[in-house]
ABC transporter substrate-binding protein
Amino acid sequence: MVTKAPPRPAPLHRALRLAVAGGVAAASLMAVPQTAQASAAADGKEGSGTTLTVAVSQSVDSLSPFLAQKLVSTSIHRLAYEYLTNFDPKDARTVPGLATAWRSSPDKLTWTYTIRKDSKWSDGQQATAEDAAWTFRKMMTDPNAATANGSFTANFKKVSAPDPQTLVIELKKPQATMTALDVPIVPKHVWEKVSDFSKFNNDKQFPIVGNGPFVITDFKVDQYIKLKPNKGFWRGAPKFDELVFKYYKDGDAAVAALQKGEVSFVPNLTPAQAAALKSQPDIKVNDAPGRRFFALATNPGARARDGKAFGNGNKALLDPEVRKALFLAVDRATLVDKVFQGHAVEGEGYIPPRFGSYFWQPDAGQRRGYDPAKAGQVLDAAGYRQNGEGKRVGKDGKPLDFRILCHATDPNDKAVGKYLQEWWGKLGIGLKVECLDSVSDPWVKGDYDLAFDGWSVNPDPDYVLSIHTCGALPATPKDSGATDNFICDPRFDALYAQQAVEYDAAKRSALVKQMQSRLYDTGYMNVLAYPNALEAYRTDQIRSITTMPEAAGNLWGQDGYWSWWSAVPAAQASDGTSGSSSTGVIVGIGAAVVLVVGLGIFLGLRRRSTSDDRE
């Protein structure tokens, strides 16, 4: 919300193309501001007390970058901390972040990064290579510090900082994500005082020390998070005087707040909400191809790395023929038409079509289209026949009755759940839709049969693929892991290991597609749709803001801080006029293309998505 006075407290992962040449990777930053925002920052002009308020429907899991996995949390961390590299909002080229240049050794086992001299922590101390080295070493040596992003450092052999501007990472084997390490760098002098990384949520002392464009100044659980501009941010301070993420449990309440001008921006609109807002004055609706998939996750038998099983998942779902029948009894076209009202694409592969390099579709012989008659035949052949009452009976004589976890705040979950009850009911299969405010507790305990799942995906799929590997399982039933759905499949793991070290773009793409094919065939993940990004903001509060990508991109959940860093208050038109809205402002970040030894690859990262996330 734009206001002339501070608001009262209110209850609240890259279609990256790396060009190829020579044996050294390098990038340079051109300090030429190309927007009103950058110009104002260069002139030292401050904002006029405006506040940008973003409505969110997701609870923050942690303000610790070492623990946070939810999209709302990781989006905030992108604002508060620098990563080694960032991504151009126009075309997602890799560009400098905390590192201004990087190069690899000929064998690709040693990477050297040049750390910028003009980045300071918000408490005034200089950010150095030792901060980055300490961050990575802590993740390498403390399993609790590796909870959120440990997949990036699992292959690290040694990390050192020979001087304040030089970071050296030695690898055990080549790693294709070295210019896309999705890890917030934290200040060593603050975090080395933390004794238990499993319990420290970084939410007791404010302001929180960071070196990103914003500084976190206040937080109330399920109420709000407040941030102020980092006036010393090397790229230039944001234009709004305050950024507030305000929590709304109910989506309709968030939309009503937008209409009344109480918030500036609302993500994750339903088609009906978007349609209603399009006719409202001073409101701009952004409808763009999304980064997310919407899926059914099937409990494969929750277990830990020590081999111990836990949870109460229905064992009938361990039968691949049962999962196949459920696939065949889902009409994706109807879901896209009736639930998403055309604002989505039918799902099949794990990676949305927005990321063409890795997008996969099954061929005609492999595809499981809507065929309820065939689904019945599959069940009959597998020994699950209908009794006199029409109920499917399992091999143990018990009826096939399943539960599905549903986000109480997500209308799509509820709507799809009703269709599944109808379609599967005709097969003689019962389905109980269990809608909860938080699905996390039963999910991590393995106490579910099926669940509605979704992740925000970036062009490099390494992270969203890693969460289905055996190594992502919890160490023991009492521990937490990085797994999404307890999948542990040796064939999938073997393909994951191959793609992780493959620098050739075409070969890596082929491996990733094979992984998606394997996920599809196992039936543990049933991707139903790729929803569009439906979001809206007030043009009388936000004059201009950057989408990512610039052409037909999203604002919420970007791979970077571009949307909120670039946002210009309506009252601060650079030419002295009131200005008009634009959802494609080009952010002036002038940077050279990264060159990588003899290869061209597409890189990027993630995150999961209540509307954004399984919770």
